[in-house]
Amino acid sequence: MPLELLIKEDFQPRGLDEVAKRLGRKAAVTPEEFAALTTAQRRAAFTFGEVHKAGVIQRLRNVIATALKNGTAYRDVRLQMLRVLRSAGIDTVPFHRLRFLFQHHAMRTMAEAQDEFLAQPHMRRAFPYFQYKVVQSPGHRESHEAFADKVFRADDPFWDKYTPPWDWGCKCYRVPRSEAWVKRNRVKVENGGAFVEREGVEAGAKEVRLGSTTPDLSGLDADLRKAVEAALEGA
After folding, report:
1. What are the beta bridge partners of residue 151?
2. Number of Cβ within a 10 Å radius of residue 45
3. pTM for this one?
4. What does the alpha-carbon distance between residue 82 and residue 16 come to, in Å, rounded to a whole number?
5. Is 80 helix (H, G, I), strand (E, B) or coil?
6. CB count, 10 Å around CB of 158?
7. In the predicted structure, residue 14 carries a pLDDT above the cut 80
8. CA separation, residue 176 to residues 10, 21, 51, 182 (Å)
9. Residue 177: strand pairing partners
10. Strand ranges of the sheet holding 151-153, from the earlier edge strand across to the other edge
11. Does the pLDDT value for residue 164 go beyond 50?
12. Rg value, the chain, Cα
C-alpha cells in the first residue's frame, strides 16, 4: 500500500482500553514457571518479581490492567498493589520494585498491542523493515546496546527473540521503516540469522544443563491451571 494512502490513525499507539484487555487475558504464573517458558509463551503470561503465589499474581495483574484502562494515577496504583501484597502477608517488595514492575508490564503490553497492529498486511507492505532503537540510560546492558540502530526485515527471525522489550527492564523499542527510507539512507539490512543461531546454541547448552523446560502447573488451583494451559497452547 502506498504510504500516502495511510491515515493518521494508522500511526497512533493502541488505546489503553485495548492494552488493558490484552493484559487481563494473560495467564498469571510464578517467576519459576515464567522462566521455563519460551519467548513466544511469555507473551501470553504475566508474573510479578518476588511474588510466588499465582493467586496473588493474578490479583496484581488485574490491578494493573484496571489502572491502565482507567488512567489511574501511579500513587493510587501503588497503594492498591500494596494492599494486595499485604493481604497475602507479603511486605518485602520495595517501592522502587513496584514502580519498575508496573512500568515493565505496561510498556511490554503496549508494545505487543502495537506490534500486532503493525503485523497487518497493509502495514507490513508499507513498512517491511524495523529498526532497533535503544533508550540511553545509566547502566544500559551491552547485550541490548549491540543491536542499536540496526535494521532487519520485519519477518526476520531475529524479532522472534529480540522484539523489545525482550528482557526485564528493557526500555528499547523498534521503529517501522519503509523501503524508500532504507534506500534513501543507504542503510544496511542485517541478517538476524547469525544472532538467532548464536542464541540457539547458547540456549541449547543451557537446556542440557537444566533439563526439561516444561513448567510444573500442579501447584495451581484448577481454574487457574486451565487458564494457564489455554494461554500456553495459544501462544
Report:
1. 131, 189
2. 20
3. 0.61
4. 23
5. helix
6. 22
7. no
8. 12, 24, 36, 11
9. 129
10. 173-177, 129-133, 151-153, 189-190
11. yes
12. 19
CB atoms under 10 Å from CB of 193, counted, come to 11
Is pLDDT above 90 for 50? Answer: no
Higher local confidence (pLDDT), 235 or 59: 59
The percent of residues above 70 in pLDDT, for the chain, comes to 74
> What is the greatest pairwise CA distance in the chain?
59
Q: For residues 111 and 79, give the distance between their C-alpha atoms in angstroms, rounded to a whole number.
A: 26
Q: Which set of grid coordinates corresponds to residue 44?
A: 501470553
State residue 108's pLDDT score.
83
* 147 grid coordinates: 543491536
List phi, psi (to 5°) of 140: -65, 140
The predicted pLDDT at position 197 comes to: 60
Alpha-carbon distances of 119 from 114, 165, 172, 203, 235, rounded to whole Å: 9, 17, 19, 27, 16
> Residue 109 in contact with residue 61, Cβ under 8 Å?
no
Q: Coil, strand, or helix at residue 173? A: strand
Where does 88-192 have alpha helices with state H?
95-118, 121-126, 142-145, 158-162, 179-184
Q: Write the CA distances from 14 to 20, 132, 139, integer angstroms.
A: 10, 20, 30
Model pLDDT for residues 82-101, shown as the tens digit of each residue = 999 999 999 888 888 898 88
Residue 133's DSSP bridge partners are 173
pLDDT per position as a tens digit, 191-221: 887 776 655 444 443 333 333 344 445 544 5
